[in-house]
Write a structure and sequence with these properties.
single chain; alpha/beta; 2 domains; nine-stranded mixed β-sheet; binds ligand BES; binds magnesium ion; binds zinc ion
Amino acid sequence: MINVSLTDKKFWENEVEGYIFLLKEDLQSIGNNDELKKIEKDFYPNLRNILKKHKFTGKFGQSFVLTATRDNSLIQFVFIGMGKLQDKWNIELENLRRAIGSAVNILKKLDIKNAVINIPDEKIFGLVKPRLVRQIVLISYIADYEFEKYKSDKTLSQWKGELILCVKKEDEQVYAQSLKEGKIIGQSTNLARDFSDLPANYLTPASLAEQAKKIAVQYGLQYKVFGREKAAEYGMGGFLAVDSGSDEEGKFVVLEYSCEKKDAPTIALVGKGVTFDSGGISLKPSAYMEGMKFDMSGAATVIATMNAIAQLQPKINVVGITPLVENMPSGKACKQDDIITFMNGKTAEIKNTDAEGRLILADALCYAEKFYKPEVILDIATLTGACLFALGHFFTGLMTRDEIVGTKLQAISLVSGDRVWPLPMDNDFKDAIKSDVADIANCGAPNYKAGTITAAWFLSNFVQNAKWAHLDIAGTADSVPGISYFGKGSTGAGVRLFVDFIMNYTK
Ligand code: BES
Ligand code: MG
Ligand code: ZN
């Protein structure tokens, strides 16, 4: 595991095993070039020629390691390419995150116990320095994540390394706060990833509920949980329909964070928690069932966000609501053509039992409005395969009819790297979920296509008063290719976005 720390010592005053350099295409440092002069003076006079000989030109995505000897022990110089740095600043910031990701990967692979890096020039990245430090810290933790629990060889996760950031002494207090926040957010993102990466034979509705309870006890959140019986009392026909097919009883879990401030607004987070999505009676073909352990990633994000919020203590109230179920076929499972009634009295015709996420979310949205009167509801779900076709793996689908919340989410997402992109919530899509026999149908008519948007229209039936945005993380929650700081498996999509949205919330 990594530990990130601060020092006011100058770069070369740190006696460490690794020295990290972020270089542009002209092979100049993006921080302070004195870092490099020292290598040329004491170790490699021909440094730039050596780099060129090894085809390291500072292009983005390149990395190179040079080993030297100091006082009879080995030290490593780790060079990371940063490209030309003339793109839009939010792209440069993303490239910086990936460069840090590559550096952490190298530290781990070479088992470097401690390494030092200079904080680069913040002007390139359009952030004030404390924000930049926060980004570097949180992405270092995210890059360090491994899911090796069920591997005999745990080499990577057993790595213990220190990444030391050099800062000026007079700024240390400010940066200490950045360090703290970055660590909380990075570790919370990894917590969400741990939940999601766990397969459904270990992570059941009951076991995830237990994990949520542990967090509540540790950080002083209110924890509520109920199962089938209470759900029936509330009239949660959506939750019960999905839950009915499984031998594992579903759990409806609520985590509450209350601030001291009177009359503070409440933000509700609602996350889809299908611990395994077989499709139910509308059984998925095997090839499409692979990865369906990740179908509780929305709930993982909500619980992990509450884990961060409990520590960061914002001056608003936050409630995290996660319906947890397993979608299975059985003699008790809900069937196609069934008609169910939700907590708000609306009815839906089940056209496909594999469109189950929206059924549990519908009741959870009702529950949020009824008991918390939130100013804003953000729901997050691995809801539709269609979202993968619309946006791929790098952008979460954002659907909202509230322009202010939508604009804020998108802006925050581009800075945090936890990116979202809007899809149109136009009235034209609304008719797609008409039903001949119930108020609405649980999936859009095929001739309308746009399954991601029609799913959002379905959900809109269950929000009355709150400003509401829906996030579809079917593409971003796991298996994202080509990003150095992610690796395989879950990404914790939405944790960074939610935390920043909440911490910056103003009406
Ligand atoms: N969990 C899936 C969505 C999904 C698919 C997430 C692929 C990640 C990768 C969801 O429950 C589902 O099966 N949705 C159906 C809806 C359809 C039946 C209207 C889908 O997208 O095919
Ligand atoms: Mg799982
Ligand atoms: Zn499904």
